[in-house]
Amino acid sequence: MTNDFAHHPVDPTSAASLAASGFQYDLVDTTDRAAFEAWFQADSRGFHGPAMSKEQIDSGFAGITYRRTVGVWDDRLVAPEVPVATVSSWTEQVTVPGNRSIDAWAISSVTVSPTHRRRGIARALLEGELRSAVDMGLPMATLTVSESTIYGRFGFGQAVFAADLTIDTTRATIPVRERRGVLQHVAPSVFVAEAPTVFERIRLSTPGQINVWPLRWEQIAGTAPGDEEYTKNTRVVRFDDEDGTPRGFVVYRVTGGGLDFTNHKLTVDYLLAETPEAYEALWRYVLEVDLVREVKAELRSVDEPLLWLLSDMRAARVSPIDHLWLRILDVPASLNARSYSSAGMIAFEVSDELGFANGRYVLETDDQGMPTASRVENLPEGVPAVSLSVNELSSLYLGGVSASSLIAAGRIGELNPGAGAAIERIFHSPTTPWLSVWF
Ligand SMILES: CC(C)(COP(=O)(O)OP(=O)(O)OC[C@H]1O[C@@H](n2cnc3c(N)ncnc32)[C@H](O)[C@@H]1OP(=O)(O)O)[C@@H](O)C(=O)NCCC(=O)NCCS
User: Fold this and answer.
1) Span from the CA of 154 to the centroid of ligand 1 (angstroms)
2) Where along this sequence does the record place binding of acetyl-CoA (predicted)?
3) Is 356 annotated in the active site?
4) 439 carries an active-site annotation
5) Class assignment of domain 330-427?
């Protein structure tokens, strides 16, 4: 992973506003272990996590210091070296429709100490991140969120949803068609070594997926230090096709049981499948493990094919939640980065309280769905047009959010009849967007 962005200086406007309140806003020197440790402990405390152990700090030091690591300090405190606010960010590739990706600014570790809350520190950090991203020429910012009420004010919109599945194994069966390939238990370290290669082969086929960093694979496999209970219980099963090539993995834990030994719960922590055979074999495996009453899987696609494999679809309860939020910063660059479902022309009047995306734009797509998007002075006559804020444009961007729903909710205004249907037709993604990790 390249880290040219990691040393990009903090935004001077936010530095000035925080300095006016007596705070220092700066990059953390991530070659300095003590400075990183103070930042890392503050980040964990901000999310109500435990004090980080030496092993966790070593792992973070090796695994996430490639990022641009930013803190806010208050030198009036007894421990002035511990930041009162944290954020980290890096360039990531977000898959967009058309088997391609867009470079985006990933923002994570946003915390403000409860002792310093509601004094505008998070606002300064977020606006600073967005201005820095623009400075670096990035067309878009992204994040996953702890609360869905925080980021709309900064122009982010929900673009990818994820589903939690709860499956009653007494009702859930997948009819056997043909069993091919081989299932086997492998060590979690095998998942860490091989899953990234399998994932990379399919990453560009699902809009919303990102390039996952190595420490995240270790956390999924339970090989990273931190949660001993998780590590102890994690099992991994791999599916190899008939040629012996690994095509998928399921990482899971079986817990509970109690006196009634048939009452265990199986939690799917990650299921990766490159082929339909791998997908079916791994889900069937999970549903057929003996002594398990319930299977839980978080962060699955809201259009999970599993539901259509089950002989009784009602065996699974599905609860969707917003997951990936996007924030377009450069409208033409973002629109030009993806391909579209049909030929046409559509115009947008975009409002953006922070000013980055304000303006009028036209998107024209050809028969192959290839775009030409540009800023215009005036909306062209006779072209379907909508007015919307940058939040809604960001929500629509990956083609997984329905323009007609946003129109019905009063979040998009049609400037001429049929504009919503035109967006729907042009923006629609044949593959439902999905992001399988947090960041
Ligand atoms: C969320 C958090 C970062 C906010 O920090 P903060 O410095 O208190 O926020 P600010 O004072 O800068 O507030 C910025 C704006 O967000 C709003 N806001 C702050 N926290 C909010 C919350 N939890 N829910 C909804 N709105 C919130 C403020 O009202 C303010 O609105 P305005 O500027 O439009 O008037 C902080 O409370 C925190 O660290 N929480 C725990 C960790 C967390 O959830 N982080 C987010 C990770 S995705």
Assistant:
1) 11
2) 110-112, 118-123, 146-147
3) no
4) yes
5) alpha beta
